[in-house]
Amino acid sequence: MKPTRSTWLVAAALLGLAAGCGGDGGGVGPRSAGSFSVVSGGNNVPDRFSSDLWVKGSWAYTGTWGRAPRNGLRGDAVKIWSLDASGAPTLADSIMTPGVYNVSDVQASDDGSVLVFSTEGGTNAGLYVYSLSDPRAPTFLDSALVADGIHTATVADLDGHRYVFAARNPKSPALLVYDITAPASIALVATVPIPPAYGIHDTYVRDGLAFVFAWNTGVIIYDVGDGRRGGSPANPVEISRLLTADDNVPGGPSVHNGWWFHNPARNESRYLFIGQEGAGVVGAESSGDLHVVDVFDIEHPKEVAFFHLDGAGTHNFWVDESRQILYMAYYNGGVVALDVSGQLLGNLSNRLIAQIKPGGDDDTYTWGVQLANGSLYAIDMLSGLWQLKVP
Which of 46, 155, 166, 262 is the most exposed place for a label (fewest CB within 10 A)? Predict the structure, then answer.
């Protein structure tokens, strides 16, 4: 039987007493409280609902969402933004992908050579790869169409090759692994079925491990080059899995996304941050908590902490690892900054550093955040792309 939150909170409290209090931010509250401020942007995508965000150098790329169209327009566009010397965004152009409902995930490769995005619904759903040789005008290289589409697509360089770890949509959920080393010739190298408990929603790949966030199946951890189980991108091998707590959200754990935190101050990679995406209504309400999982023993992960924000729920994350701050898109709750330094145990409500609703109370439903060039960028489904000053 899956333990309840109260069960592991008691265990965490006992562990905290044994370990002592204080020291390097070990649960004594935020190192400093602060506030976000808007630098520029906002109210700049009036035609469609916005979705995902990626910033690379002096350019940004954002997706659009539209199963319930805005102004009669579905999410078939990737918006291209020029960032000036101060980081302020100006809409420069768009990539149109006719016949899809959502551009659901957007990422540029680390070397800035390609833009990858996933699409859902309609007749042309799947994976798209574009060249960024001219970042203002990306050029089409190849696509891999998938019935019902791909929810997210994570680009990762492993052992001299470039891969995309893609989440096939819930009707036939699977982890799809594509080799895009030759970006004009996408090759599917692995298909890993995922239990149909509303499928797979996101992946996070780092140091030869792939973390698959599979809704009410939980998080599944695969060796894709780590070496401990002989896995590879073409042959992912499961190491372990964990179903997180669901106390505050009807409908189950709803494991949506995550980030494996590498803490340079403590020289450890102990914590996996997991977002729980509960029920919501675009523009009005959302639900779901942050769950913190200890993966020091990767074969036996355990949940140790959580953060709850009344009246709102998490979506996507970004971590400033050097400063040990977790930035969370919190839908109608806007953007939240959380101190994740030191030991993380129990209720992290005293770790809240700052919160902002960039579009105000009636025009905020934040999808994602990314720290880049000294600014925090937030993409909001209702009010577009924002540049924020961090606390």
Answer: 46
Residues 6+ apart with CB under 8 A from 386: 38, 40, 41, 42, 358, 359, 377, 378, 379, 380
Reading the chain (391 residues) residue by residue, the pLDDT tens digits are 454 565 555 455 444 433 333 334 444 445 556 899 999 999 999 999 999 999 999 999 999 999 788 999 999 999 999 999 999 999 999 999 999 999 999 999 999 999 999 999 999 999 999 999 999 999 999 999 999 899 999 999 999 999 999 999 878 899 999 999 999 999 999 999 999 888 899 999 999 999 999 999 999 999 999 999 999 999 999 999 999 998 767 778 999 999 999 999 999 999 999 999 999 999 999 999 999 999 999 999 999 999 999 999 999 999 999 999 999 999 999 999 999 999 999 999 999 999 999 999 999 999 999 999 999 999 999 999 999 999 8
Three-state secondary structure readout of 135-165: CCCCEEEEEEECCCEEEEEEEEEECCEEEEE
Taking the CA atoms of the chain, what radius of gyration do you get in angstroms? 20
Q: State which amino acid sits at residue 33.
A: A
Token digits of residue 39:
């630098």
Residue 112's SS3 state is coil
Place of tokens 């619904």: 121
- The CA distance from 252 to 148, in Å, is 24
Q: How far is Cα 220 from Cα 71, in angstroms, rounded to an integer?
A: 39
Is the alpha carbon torsion for 155, 157, 162, 164 positive or negative?
negative
Is beta strand 102-108 parallel, antiparallel or unpaired with respect to 335-339? unpaired
Is residue 138 within 8 A of residue 132, CB to CB? The reply is yes
CA distance 379 to 370: 9
CATH class of 244-391: mainly beta
The total of other beta-carbon atoms located within 10 Å of residue 15's CB is 15
Burial call 70-102: b when 16+ CB within 10 Å, e when fewer? beeebbbbbbbbebeeebebebeeebebeebbb
Distance CA 240, CA 220 (A): 6
Buried b (16+ CB within 10 A) or exposed e, 232-269: bbebbeebeebbbbbeebeebbbbbbbbbbebeebeeb
